[in-house]
Amino acid sequence: MATTRATWAYRDRFGDGFGRTYFRRFGPGVVSSIGLGTYLGDPTDAVDDDYERALIAGFEGGCNVVDTAVNYRCGRSERVVGRAIERADVDREAVVVATKGGFLPFDGERPADPTDYIREQFVDGGPVDPTDLAADYHCIAPDAIEALLDRSLDALGLETIDCYYVHNPETQLRARSREDVYDQLEATFERLERRVAAGDIGRYGVATWQAFRVPPEADAHLSLPEVAARARSAAATVGRAETGFEAIQLPFNVHMADAFTAEVHEFEGEYRSALSVAQTLDLDVFTSASLAQGDLLTGLPAAVDAELSGDTPAQRAINFARSAPAVTCALVGASDPDHVAEDVAAGTFDPLGARAFDAVFT
């Protein structure tokens, strides 16, 4: 598990090479405000090798956050993360490892018949009740999430996962009511609270795509205040004084800024944005799609670009994402060592201050 001692030592090793607020508080320690993602890429040995080199370069270059998921690249991404941590010249306890469970994974490659594979591996005598499935491949019921968590621990080769996310819970809204999804999340949060107490995970949260950005009338909407309340209830049920629900992940970039601009969550008598609610609830926010999966590499809107520091469009886009209130870390893809060096170097420039960031939207 990442520790206070090791993450601060990591900050001391690299901090002088970066700008102000590059390292930020997270849990008992500190993390780089640029993190390494492992979503994109084919499930091949060649891509595995690229990721391993890139991750090692990131860890050894001042980035101590890595994000993955049990299903990414047919399960290969978690294995690569584990190998990179083992082989990099960094202390395991200096690196914050986040992964996710919800989408049922393949094992190394896409099977000829995915539906049959899911049924044989997870449903027939496995941890998944078919009535809990949505879209044929998504399940966040307690037994399923525990099984996926154990699978992730094995794949990563770690004793503890620092942050474990329930992955895209809004997918369940295709199959059941919003209230039923909240109930299922609360039941699963109870299991995760017990796993925090057991030391298998450091903390947990939810990773979303649409849920916290769309209005209440949208099919994919989930209320962040309600999800957080269900986590507090889960903690109380298992006898924990404080909840382990400490983080959320959502997309954020200059073209997908609705986590900041869209006031879609009823909270404390008014409607507020996801980032505003997260800030009030003291939740750490990790942004996905910080480069819009590559779309921002050619440049940002001129008015925004002019406000940002960085030598390249990628660096300025990353600095936009990590400038937003409540954002602890902006995630970027890590399949190319040269790109990782460029992306992490964005942290040598300062992000926008609060007033300057607000001014971009006025």
TrEMBL record:
Matching Pfam families: Aldo_ket_red
Chain ranges of the NADP-dependent oxidoreductase domain: 34-211
Superkingdom assignment: Archaea
Protein's UniProt name: Aldo/keto reductase
